[in-house]
Specification:
The protein contains two helices and 35 strands. The chain has 422 residues and is mainly beta. The relative contact order is 0.09.
Length: 422
């Protein structure tokens, strides 16, 4: 086409081409020196929901809903299918454990590979549900979170046994996320997290100050971050008491936290649903962000990768690595996770006690409400000085279900979810 162009226009185009080449070279040098300051698409498949991203053995893995399992050995330039249609085309998680690689799927259970993903075989004996949403491992044990509870395997997936979670017929049996932390397994569900995994096989249920799904979890030293499907981020330093991080949540326009991932300096990158929603080190990473936002995140080779709902895998970086300091982690710190008040036992069969701490003299009011917002009765309403207090209440006449205990203290309002179970 250019051979038919007039000479003067030919040289104009040639000059423009040289200018474009120089500009591209300058951009490459700049990006190499300072990092890529905008999101760019990789050459991944598009048109599919990126169910997960995972960095394994110097390769980036991705699960595309409806397409299958892929990996990229060159930071997103090429994507190679792993599974050859053997693995169910809706892979939800990837786990390396021992000499095997495991993939959970939305409709086909768990698959196992002994050759880095070249070939796979289903390992579903005893697995009560083929809808597997997440995987984790602790010591020699495997854990699979399913639509019908949590299952464990002690023989590399050859057989599975259902974990004895409390209240097996309750509404909290769908396990959306799993995390191995401090010699324990955390299993995130709706409005609750289960903590266990010890050799005695005991599990405890921790009721959370939210009714929504726990979609993602991330350890940050002794602190665990937990992303919910609409109530933002919660933190805990002992996995028993959970509190909202108001500073970080206030910075996020959308409280549907779809993913948490590490930054190169051990801080956390956060993805919430929708556009303008990736937050890292006190700022949004908005530049050229896909409008639909990200469902999944992963740090791979100092670059942050985001999986979209239909536009494939994108990347941002390399992110600058800085020494982690208290200041750089400030937004993730909680001054004190000591609870203002607690309810024990919770869930409660008959009687429960509300324990609370008063910092300065003032009026204290504690009231119990139904799940519909109807006030049932008042537990306390008086002026009290500094100190620790406890109020007992009978729940024998209350039908089983969820209730809310509201504490008004020092001009602030706190609530705790109470479950009556018999």
């Amino acid at each position: 086409m250019y051979l038919k162009t007039a000479p003067n226009r030919f040289f104009t185009l040639l000059s423009a081409s040289r200018y474009a080449a120089i500009s591209l070279l300058f951009f490459i040098l700049y990006a190499s020196a300072f990092g890529q300051e905008a999101w760019q698409p990789t050459k991944s498949p598009t048109g599919y929901d990126v169910l997960f991203l995972s960095s394994q053995d110097k390769a980036l893995w991705a699960g595309f809903g409806g397409l299958g399992l892929f990996y990229s050995p060159d930071e997103g330039q090429t994507w190679i299918e792993r599974g050859d249609s053997v693995v169910n085309p809706f892979p939800t998680a990837l786990l390396a454990h021992g000499k095997f690689l495991y993939a959970s799927t939305l409709f086909g259970g768990v698959y196992r590979s002994a050759d880095a993903g070249l070939t796979w075989s289903a390992v579903n004996k005893g697995l009560g549900s083929l809808h597997v949403l997440c995987l984790a491992s602790l010591d020699k044990s495997l854990y699979a979170g399913t639509s019908q509870g949590l299952f464990t395997s002690e023989d590399s997936g050859e057989s599975w046994v259902k974990a004895p979670l409390p209240y097996p017929h309750g509404p909290h049996q769908i396990i959306f996320s799993l995390l191995a932390h401090d010699k324990q397994i955390l299993a995130g569900s709706s409005g609750a997290v289960y903590v266990g995994g010890s050799k005695n096989g005991e599990w405890s249920q921790i009721i959370l100050p939210t009714l929504l799904m726990i979609q993602t979890m991330l350890p940050l030293g002794k602190t665990v971050l937990m992303g919910s499907s609409g109530d933002g981020i919660f933190l805990s330093q002992d996995t028993k008491v959970w509190a909202k991080n108001e500073t970080l949540n206030a910075a996020l326009a959308n409280q549907n936290i779809s993913a948490l991932a590490y930054g190169p300096d051990s801080t956390a990158a956060t993805a919430s649903a929708g556009e303008n929603a990736v937050y890292y080190k006190d700022k949004y990473l908005n530049e050229a962000l896909p409008r639909e936002g990200f469902r999944s995140l992963a740090l791979h080779e100092k670059t942050l990768y985001g999986g979209t709902y239909s536009k494939g895998v994108w990347k941002y970086g390399p992110l600058p690595k800085e020494k982690a300091t208290a200041a750089s982690l400030g937004q993730l710190e909680v001054p004190s996770l000591k609870p203002v008040y607690t309810i024990f036992p919770n869930p409660s069969p008959q009687q429960f006690a509300v324990e609370y701490l008063v910092q300065t003299m003032g009026r204290v009011r504690i009231e119990l409400f139904s799940s519909k917002g109807e006030k049932l009765f008042t537990l306390a309403d008086q002026v009290q000085g500094p100190g620790a207090y406890s109020v007992e209440a009978a729940a024998g006449k209350l039908p089983p279900g969820a209730y809310f205990c509201v504490l008004q203290l020092d001009g602030k309002i706190f609530f705790e979810r109470l479950v009556i179970a018999r």
